[in-house]
Amino acid sequence: MGLKIMENEIVFKEMLAPEIKLIKVRAPFVAKKARSGQFVILRASEGDERIPLTLIDWDPREGTVTLVVKEVGASTKRLGALEVGGRVRDLVGPLGNPGEIRSYGKVCVIGRGVAIAAAYERARKFREARNGVTVIISARTAGLLIYREELEKISDKFYVATDDGSEGVKGYANDILKNLLDSGERFGLVYAVGAATLMRNISKVTKPYDIRTIVSLNSLMVDGTGLCGCCRVTVGGSPMFTCVDGPEFDAHLVDFEEFRARIHTYDQEEKIAHQLAEGNCRCKG
Amino acid sequence: MQRLEVRFKQIPMPELPVKERIRTFNEVSLGYAEEQALAEAARCLQCENPLCVQMCPLRMDVLGVVRLIRLGGYREAAERARERNCLPSICGRVCPQEVLCVMGCRNTLGDPINIGGLERFVADWELERGGNMPEAAPATGKSVAVVGSGPAGLSAATELARMGHHVVVFEALHEAGGVLTYGIPEFRVPKKVVKQEVDYVGKLGVEIRTNVVVGKTITMDELFEGGFDSVFLGSGAGLPRLLGVPGENLCGVYSLNEFLIRINLMRAYRFPHMSRTPVKVQGKVAILGARGLDAARCALRLGAEEVTIFYQQKVVGRADEIRRGAEEGVKFQPLTKPLRLVGDEKGWVKQVELARLEPSAKFLYDAGTAVIANKHIPNTLAAKNTARSIEIAKSGTIVVNPETLVTSDEGIFAGGDVASGAASVIKAIEAGKRAAHSINKYLLK
Q1: How many domains, chain B?
Q2: How many angstroms away from the CA of B274 is the closest CA of chain A?
Q3: What is the pTM of this model?
């Protein structure tokens, strides 16, 4: 009984960048089971969406999981607004399959925006598995480059790209990767996580070099347990559910056009909900 | 004359007018008022050898319930219904009575008795005013984990709790009720009623833990290690079966479950004010498959221009709901089969190409939204992610002894859609109950 009351409590919170927040939540059962690459689904409060978030860290002894959330819509805003001592209404997991982590020799880990947090988690695991780790991170602008120092510390080679050139190379991660490969650099595995465009572009770069490339897809989800099929994506010509068959797939087999179209299904509705949350709704209600 | 007519004709169930219905998700069937229930109960002939009871998979004492209603003992009538049926307010609403109890009604003086209507009347009466809780048997010290809080799980939990066992129900979603919560729309079974029934099970001492995926959050092995003596798997058949035709991953194409989960579990019809989960219904809506009646009626309420169900043989649903759907404007196109979905340049569905089977022809239907409504696949995650070996049939169902519902592991039982394949609420309740009795025997062995 005591345990139940404590569950889902936020025990730590940190602002990593404007609109990107780290929260540590008490979830002992999830912390005990969590593996790299898995995710949880949570709802900040009644009426909110079920939001899938990749597990960034977990501590089975302390019984906590760490998540990084970017406030992009009404539901993520409400999650981001919860303070230490507050409770997340619902949290379920760990969901999805663990990622494959072994020794590949040299790996390249690529992350963009809020997903740099997931890249950081994976880079650490690759390092522990005795891989040489090259890291490329990118974001719209320098202020959004989270985990910059930490990643630089644990990587053998470290590259930064920003869209506006405010830090590192002005341009995209795929340009950096292409330069590396063109100049003779080789990897046993490339792991990319972030926006759909980034993952598609990385996949395009590695394909001619026939380098095994894994992407972690951020499909839209509702239940996250295989019930709804909202997250379905064509991989190697077959329908896959990101929630139960993924979330990580061989990038060279993913139908990125379909994936990209599907994750934008509710852009219009997102905007409406967001405006309402900001108090700019013109309708009555 | 007046009297005679009353006896001949069934007392009509009050319903929301069609015009009002299609603008809200409020319950369509309003339920009998007291005097209506009394008049309907008065029509029962109280047969000596009641076939209605025989035809009920739960053998609910229809005769006794009707007799008690006549005497004005509504609470007693509800208790009588509950003796054999743990979810009377649900069954009264969703059972296809016309092929069950009502089919057995031998009222030779006219229409059969509206048994579902009466069952619902007493169950609602009790849920509103509170009933007497049945006495539980003394605690046995045994505990049972129930996987899934749908009809099968709630039924097994109720029976096991009454026998004195400690029961914990694990539910993967954030709200209990299984298909009653995520699948059946508010206008057929209000969530308030589901919640009242779930709370009733809680009052029997059953602990219900939401947000736990057995097979992920915790495995069955861990449940046994943690002190549970037996497990009942009632995880239902909730996995979507796609069509396998080109274009089914276009935007605007939903599986039946996604469409219903967004609307029912996430209350997308209250977007954006009360719910922040959207659902998109635009233009004409094509429902592809015989199981799409609920989805079709939801789509109409969400402002679809037109809704058509394309199916081969027979739409799945109770007679009342098919009639109501037709009244509301759902169109039915039998003997058709989808061939492919056609998208626009942005990846959104714009047409469905279908085959007419008789006479054989192909045609296009303009659709801004499509829902794939095939028969669902059993959810056997818990049975797969365990070190124990649980036999699963090729069809995807968990293999059980048809009498005892024990699986290939003697401590694990399964019932409802997960073992039978997609069937009905009442069959799942019956299976949960039967499994509970087998579990009881197993525990006290």
Answers
A1: 3
A2: 6
A3: 0.95
